[in-house]
Every structure is written in C-alpha cells, then in structure tokens.
Amino acid sequence: RNVKRQMACRSDINSFNAPFLAVFESLIPADEEKVKQKQLMMLLEKHVSKEWPEARLHVYGSCANSFGFSKSDIDVCLAMELGNIDKSEILLKLADILQSDNLQNVQALTRARVPIVKLKDPVTGISCDICVNNVLAVVNTKLLRDYAQIDVRLRQLAFIIKHWAKSRGVNETYQGTLSSYAYVLMCIHFLQQRRPAILPCLQGMEITYFTIVDNVECAYFDQVEKLQNFGLRNGESIAQLVWAFFHYWAYCHDYANDVISVRTGSTLSKRAKDWTRRVGNDRHLICIEDPFEVSHDLGRVVDKYSIRVLREEFERAAEIMQYDHNPCVTLFEPY
Ligand code: CTP
Ligand code: MG
Question: Name one GO cellular component term (predicted).
C-alpha cells in the first residue's frame, strides 16, 4: 500500500474531463421533473393542511439537496406537534386520506426503522416516501445543498461517485454498504482536504444559521453566495478529482484509526470518539461522523464482509483511474 500511496496521477488524466462531465450531465434531472415534483407536493399539501392545519411538509433527501438524479423518488417529512399521539396513528390516517384521492400503492409501513407512508402518483409517475418529524434530515439536506452552491465540482464529483456506487452495487445499506448521504459526505470531506481546499468547513465559521432539533444544535455559516470564489485557488479538474478520490479511499485513508468529519473539516481519531470497539451492531470499520448527530457513525451499517467489498471496489476504481484506457466506461460497468 505504501508504494501505491506515492503513486502520481497519469499524465493523460485531463483527456477524461469531457467524458466525465458528459456522465454528470446525463444524470441531471430535467426541469419538467422538478415541475412534476412541485405538483405532487402541492397535492400532498392540500390534503395535509385540510386534516392538520398546523403541520408542514418539507422535501428532504436527493430532491432537495441538489444531489438527485433524474427519476429519483421524493423524500418528504411531515413536521407537526404530536403531543401524545404516536407516529403510526398519524401515518395510518395519512395513508387513509391519500388512498381516497386515487394515488396508487398507498402503503403505511409503520414498523420500518423509519416508519413511512409510500405512494405513487399516477399522473406524474413519481414515487414518494413520507415520514413524520424527521426534521434533522431536513436540516442536513440544507447543509448539503449549501455546500453544493460553493463549488460546482462537488456536485459533479458526487454525481459520478453515486453513479459508480449504484452501478457497482455498493449503495445498499441493507447489504452493509453505504447510503448516498454517506457518499456525499465523503465527497465534501475529500474536497475540504484538498490543498488548497476546494470547500471550507461551514460549521467552523461564523454562525449565520441556527436551529435546535431533537436537542441537537445545528449551527453553521449558510451565506454561501459569499463563498463563490472559495475554491478558485485550486485548479484541479473533475477527472483529477475522481482519480484522487478513489486513490484516497483505496490507499490513503487510515481505516484502523480515523473518522472523517465534515463538521470539523478534518479527521478525528476513533479513540477520541470511543468508536474503537464493536457495540451491538456498530462495528465502526469505516467511520463517517454525521455532521449534526455526532454520535452517529454513518459507516455503522458496514460489517466485516462488506468492508472488504467496499475496499476492493475502491481499489478497483483507483486502478481503473490509473491505467484503464476508457475509465468513464469501465468504472461504471455493472458488477
Ligand atoms: N439521511 C440521514 N441519515 C442517514 C441516511 C439518510 O439523515 N443515515 C437523510 C439525509 O437527509 C439524506 C436523506 O435522508 O439526504 C436521504 O438519504 P439517501 O437516500 O441516502 O440519499 P439521497 O440523497 O436521497 O440519495 P438517492 O438518490 O440514492 O435516493
Ligand atoms: Mg433518497
């Protein structure tokens, strides 16, 4: 590994910029899709406000964080005061209301880890998951969207990494690999580490946005329009960054000792977080600190089998970026 750690990037790397950008462009949702999502949201809002006038609907996840592909499902959060009513009751009621408005496949999954109502809108063909009071997800969605505004290379890189992860079958949390959310945080961390840095650490700056959700303080600098020039001192191209991203996760990250932390713009030690031992199902084989729920390791789904799969995939991708004559195709070959 040490030998590879010294590896210099291939000299023809920039000839792959145009093909990588073409991959990115091909995944961006069209404007009509955004219009359809808004239509479905308006329909849902109509039903919700009739039943619960005080409640609010928020879109979170890929449709709102600017890392969504074309044809993504919409993630929606119903935010309301529950008092002593439980979430399942609300979800069953919601399913009932929506069922009667010729939406398709309305299903309340009240026993899931995150209980939701699932549905499909026959008019737009869009599927949608609605959860109750997952407000931290709404706030971390804003954080990701704000980071994406600072430098276009984040969105380009994250689209390419998500597309790679989906093509290679390593974007399946129920199989022990990582969520899209985790991959985007890995991209942000990586761009914070470039020298000169391409992204700042928003949670280490003056606080312009503050909220407390579920007893968690969420505070950071959100006036990102003032940071438009932040990454300009670094001229790395998208192909160089894709190469360096895989090189980093294949050969440079210290899996045994380090935690990546977007919150601090740096890495922390597993020891400092007490993430050195297996506790219950949390094995901490790859550690990614949630930016707000700091006791939450997004790598906790990874087990001793899937960590091998992941690391082999990072190494495969690094080799392709180094040697393959057509990396923009080979990288995304189905497994
Ligand atoms: N989320 C979270 N904690 C997790 C996983 C997800 O808070 N461990 C929240 C985040 O707000 C994230 C949203 O749930 O934006 C959706 O997660 P995910 O499906 O991983 O990301 P998407 O951006 O929706 O990606 P995809 O296009 O693959 O659906
Ligand atoms: Mg999603």
Answer: cytoplasm
